[in-house]
Amino acid sequence: MRSNLTELPPDLPIPIDDGLTDHLVGLELPAIELKSTERKSLNIWQELQKPSVLFIYPRAGSPLEPNMNPHAWDQIPGARGCTPHSCGYRDLKADFDLKGVSLFGLSVQSPAVQDEFAERNLITFPILSDYQYKLTDSLNLPTFDFEGTRLIKRMALYIVGAKIVKVFYPVFPPNKNAADVLAWLQAQERL
């Protein structure tokens, strides 16, 4: 695993829009419980009634998981950048708070890995673990396989009243996604 997961290499392949999220706008979230870094399970249907951003990433680097082939990971369009993606939202949390928008992160990594990741990176909003693929399968989120593990493709969902209003997909570069979502929210205020 690389020593600096917060930096992105300049030559990462850019993901293309494969249409695999086109069905999401207008869908209502299921009333399922997901474990969170708040040391409890959250019912996502209840928690995401208020305006929220649920940003989804494939797999953050963690000392709790085995090392993966970094070169192979970097060659998958949109895979690299989970730490910068999450830290981008962390750094702009106050701006989202001012707009009354809650933040949630999500991947299929275990609750223990999510806890370690959130603590190490000072993430102060819930990171949800979909390690049982409840949300992934319910919403038919796009996935890919890497070294025998099924991972969710990177995206961000703007949700109001537990319904998906806007999908940001593909996300590239991941470290700019939070600012892109914030700019979109500001543009909506001017409409």
Explain this structure to me?
The protein has one domain: Glutaredoxin, CATH 3.40.30. The protein is α+β, with helices and mostly antiparallel strands and 191 residues long. The strands form two sheets. Strands 2-1-5-4-3-8-9 form a seven-stranded mixed beta sheet. The chain has helices spanning 44-47, 70-74, 82-91, 93-98, 111-120, 134-139, 177-190, and strands at 33-36, 41-43, 52-56, 102-107, 127-129, 143-146, 149-152, 155-160, 163-168. Helices cover 29% and strands 21% of the residues. The chain contains seven helices and nine strands; from the N terminus they run E-E-H-E-H-H-H-E-H-E-H-E-E-E-E-H. The protein starts with 32 loop residues before the first strand and ends with a helix. The mean pLDDT is 93. The longest helix has 14 residues, at 177-190.
Q: Which properties best describe this structure?
A:
single chain; 9 strands; alpha+beta; Glutaredoxin; two-stranded antiparallel ribbon; 191 residues
Instruction: Please tell me the overall pLDDT.
Output: 93
Helix content: 25-40%
Shape: globular
The CATH class designation is Alpha Beta
Order of helices and strands: EEHEHHHEHEHEEEEH
Biggest sheet, strands in spatial order? 2-1-5-4-3-8-9
**Unreliable stretches:** none
Total number of beta strands? 9
The CATH architecture term is 3-Layer(aba) Sandwich
Task: Please state the structural category.
Answer: alpha+beta
Biggest sheet record: 7 strands, mixed
Under CATH, the topology can be stated as: Glutaredoxin
Q: Any idea what the CATH superfamily is called?
A: Glutaredoxin
**Range of strand content:** 15-25%
Report Rg: 15 Å
Total tally of structural domains: 1
State the end-to-end CA separation: 45 Å
What is the count of helical runs? 7
